[in-house]
Amino acid sequence: MSNAPISPAHAYEELRAGNRRFVENNPRHPNQDADHRASLAPGQRPFAVLFGCSDSRLAAEIIFDQGLGDLFVVRTAGQVTGPEVLGSIEYGVSVLGAPLVVVLGHDSCGAVTAARQTVVEGSAPPGFLRDIVERVTPSVLSARADGKTEVDEIVDVHVQRTTDLLLERSTVLSKEVEAGRCAIVGLCYHLTDGTVREVGSRGPVSQEA
């Protein structure tokens, strides 16, 4: 997009439209020319913050058919949160003015698979991988409490819990959502067909009449 949308609903529809183009193999590859690149040099105004898994198949600008300056992207394995993640998302919303935050998970997630395996077998991976697994484990336990044991079922729970966690831990985000200036949407990406499915949302993401 050349200009930031004025509402969270507008931003969400722009992302969904881009994903439809990607799925239909009809991408526009917007905002990737030399003139647009030069126009962004003085500053950026992304229309959405994308917090997703680091999985190499989850390239946000590609699967949502966006270009330079459109998305402020934060990625970690299993989209686990920490101070750096929260600060980055707050920057995208409060400083850059993005009206939408998307939490993007995907099916067959390796981090969720590892956390599930740790819960089932009682063994954790070495090094800092253990930290990632420990941050995903509460989602595994929450899913199991609801009778959900398959990896993709746990992914949905993890995306929803991450969405809730952002609002619980960040006063900046919660105030923006309460004021209607920002919304948070949890999405799950399907690796095979490229579609995204909404898991949950907080804030105004429906198009206004």
Automatic annotation (TrEMBL):
<protein>
    <recommendedName>
        <fullName>carbonic anhydrase</fullName>
        <ecNumber>4.2.1.1</ecNumber>
    </recommendedName>
</protein>
<keyword id="KW-0456">Lyase</keyword>
<dbReference type="InterPro" id="IPR001765">
    <property type="entry name" value="Carbonic_anhydrase"/>
</dbReference>
<keyword id="KW-0479">Metal-binding</keyword>
<keyword id="KW-0862">Zinc</keyword>
<comment type="function">
    <text>Catalyzes the reversible hydration of carbon dioxide to form bicarbonate.</text>
</comment>
<dbReference type="GO" id="GO:0015976">
    <property type="term" value="P:carbon utilization"/>
</dbReference>
<dbReference type="InterPro" id="IPR015892">
    <property type="entry name" value="Carbonic_anhydrase_CS"/>
</dbReference>
<feature type="binding site">
    <location>
        <position position="53"/>
    </location>
    <ligand>
        <name>Zn(2+)</name>
    </ligand>
</feature>
<feature type="binding site">
    <location>
        <position position="106"/>
    </location>
    <ligand>
        <name>Zn(2+)</name>
    </ligand>
</feature>
<dbReference type="GO" id="GO:0008270">
    <property type="term" value="F:zinc ion binding"/>
</dbReference>
<feature type="binding site">
    <location>
        <position position="109"/>
    </location>
    <ligand>
        <name>Zn(2+)</name>
    </ligand>
</feature>
<dbReference type="Pfam" id="PF00484">
    <property type="entry name" value="Pro_CA"/>
</dbReference>
<comment type="similarity">
    <text>Belongs to the beta-class carbonic anhydrase family.</text>
</comment>
<feature type="binding site">
    <location>
        <position position="55"/>
    </location>
    <ligand>
        <name>Zn(2+)</name>
    </ligand>
</feature>
<dbReference type="GO" id="GO:0004089">
    <property type="term" value="F:carbonate dehydratase activity"/>
</dbReference>
<dbReference type="InterPro" id="IPR036874">
    <property type="entry name" value="Carbonic_anhydrase_sf"/>
</dbReference>
